[in-house]
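Quick note —
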Amino acid sequence: MLKEGDDYYLIEGGYMVFTKEYHLKRGYCCKNGCKHCPWPKPINQHTETNKIEKKEL
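Predicted structure written out below.
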């Protein structure tokens, strides 16, 4: 059962924001871009840093 303050807090509009502690207890990233996600962000293959130029091939 989720506990307000430990696992989440409410923001304007009644939205629930999960805490870092909640994410660590869950044990994995849901890949929804959560504000307090402690897991490394997945590499987006369409970002500038991940593009391979034709001349490099």
